[in-house]
Amino acid sequence: MSKLRIAFVIPTMDQGGAEKQLALLAIGLPKDQFDVHVFLLTRDGPRSEMLRSNDVPVTVIGKRFKLDPSALFRLKRCLQSFQPDIVHTWLFAANSFGRTAAWLSKTPTIIGSERCVDPWKRWYQFAIDRWLAKRSQAITTNSQGIVEFYAQHGMDRDLFRVIPNGIASRQSESIDRQQACQRLGIAEDRRIVLAVGRLWPQKRYRDLVWAAEMISAVDPLMTLVIIGDGPQKYELLRFRDDVTSRQAVTFVGHREDVEQLLPHAEVFWNGSEYEGQSNSIIEAMQAGLPVIASDIAGNRDLIKDQVTGKLVPLGDRAALAQATLELLRSPDQAALLGKQASRFIEDHFTIEQLIQRHATLYQELCTDAGS
Prior knowledge:
Blueprint: E1 4-10, H1 17-28, E2 34-40, H2 48-53, E3 58-60, H3 69-82, E4 86-89, H4 92-104, E5 109-114, H5 123-133, E6 138-141, H6 144-152, E7 160-162, H7 177-184, E8 191-196, H8 205-218, E9 222-227, H9 233-243, E10 249-253, H10 258-261, E11 267-270, H11 279-286, E12 291-294, H12 297-300, E13 310-312, H13 317-329, H14 331-348, H15 351-370
Parallel strand pairs: 1-2, 1-4, 2-3, 4-5, 5-6, 6-7, 8-9, 8-11, 9-10, 11-12, 12-13
Organism: Stieleria bergensis
GO molecular function: glycosyltransferase activity
Pfam families: Glyco_trans_1_4, Glyco_transf_4
């Protein structure tokens, strides 16, 4: 049997969660069964190095502005040259341009991918989604909450295939507490609460800063360490300085050593307004950290309240502070939640499962297309 030719289309190869999952999938699909090519609609990014170093070709289409018709036709020509059996697109811009180009080039099987609940979309964007869904054989996603969101906006829930994110086994060399605190620029006696993610409104970091200020009034040794960068950086720094101290909340920017730092935290926070399936939560759970997160659709897929972590009402800063103080005062409960979280991730969120579920879907859809 000849190899299936898979064209992945995504806007960039930046450091986001969707880009990481695509890279893991593209690299991991068995090379004796699949011929994979990645097309970047807008520009290149740091995760491309993972692909190229594993002999996965990457082509940058170079879309210059939001409605760049030349990018659509360049992508169409590239697909006609590659002649894929499947075009699998990720994220809104690539879902729109990529599926249209695949349809125009008569690709036999077209798959979209929705990675997040997207309340920012306007009516016309949902109209585009619905039109392209009718020309797709499937839409992959990582969360049942996303299925429900798009079903409420008129898309056929039967099109969706839920495939949870995959995470690699922990591979970094461990570091000791002193090293971790030195890297973060905090004293060794601090009790660390970690939050990791892009600094932008979806993540609601203002809520986390306020909750940290509440805790610091009771436990002055607690420090919230926020790892990440983004467009809200300077606004959040000013906000932090207005409401609390740098000892209570510290911003350390984007870091490549998060895996090594996680074991040295007491608690992990996520206060997002919406998520698909948070890679940062999965990584924290894998490391055995108790996670306290906002009670939203994507987080509920990962956290069973009081079993694999704690859920608190969205935006409830007092509830977040109270739940955290309970764990800081009860290390046995925190350790149990972390242990159960780690086991849950090990059982359900491996890279091997991610790859096998996609491979099975691709084979199934191509068999249906050929029958």
